[in-house]
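Weekly puzzle thread! Below is a chain. First person to post its structure in token form gets bragging rights.
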Amino acid sequence: MIRTFDAAILTYHSISAGPPPLCIPPALFAQQMQWLRKNAQVLSLGGLAESLAGGSLPPKAVALTFDDGFQDFYDNASPVLERLGFPAMVFLPAGYCGKTSDWDAHARGRPVLSWNQVRELAARGLSFGSHGMSHTGLAGRTDAELAYEVIESRRLIEAETGRETEFFCYPYGSYDARALRAVSACYRGGACSTDLRVLVAEDDRFALPRIDVHYMRRPAVFRSVFTERFQLYLFARRLMRNFRSRMHSPRNPSHDAFRRTG
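Winning reply:
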């Protein structure tokens, strides 16, 4: 049975001309944003989470999230978002700000936003959440490791921006019950997973499902986001992703960046 739904949280990583699956070309990103402007309600992640907490979701609602805080967000995404008046949430691996990424083969060598750029973007109305300190999965971590990734990252982002950090994003979608408890005790807004689904009213706001736009690169797929056909497409992609994940070692979370996105 295909469930009806009202909302989706979209995930982007790099807005650049680099290779898939990490990168979405700037021209394609601009086209996607123009389509959303005409066909969807683009809400902040906080606004969508508040609606979820209230037990209902607005029709044709979309929230935009950007994982990893790559510098090309500043160069290529933020001007488009500001021109259209769209809110967005950028999840920062706080220990990498002002440095280059090295956490997996897909991301290696990419500049991450500097704190000066983060402050500028925050002043321009964009929102920032935590992607941990070191972009490491949280499942199986000790209390000290969880405190570093969950609490210290929030403290650092708040110190640099002067604003509350309300949301967390699990690196690689990797978390367990202990990690979820640590995050829910520290962040009042919620947390994002990499569960490849649309959002429904029963979802836990500390394990919010999202849809990586890598799976929506074709314009026809992107434009089908609010249809039953799109849900069938996601179901098929989940089956394929789960099959691939079983073919690799679970000890290497970077083996399939879009089974558990960065």
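Puzzle host: Confirmed. Bonus trivia for everyone else. The first helix runs from residue 26 to 39.
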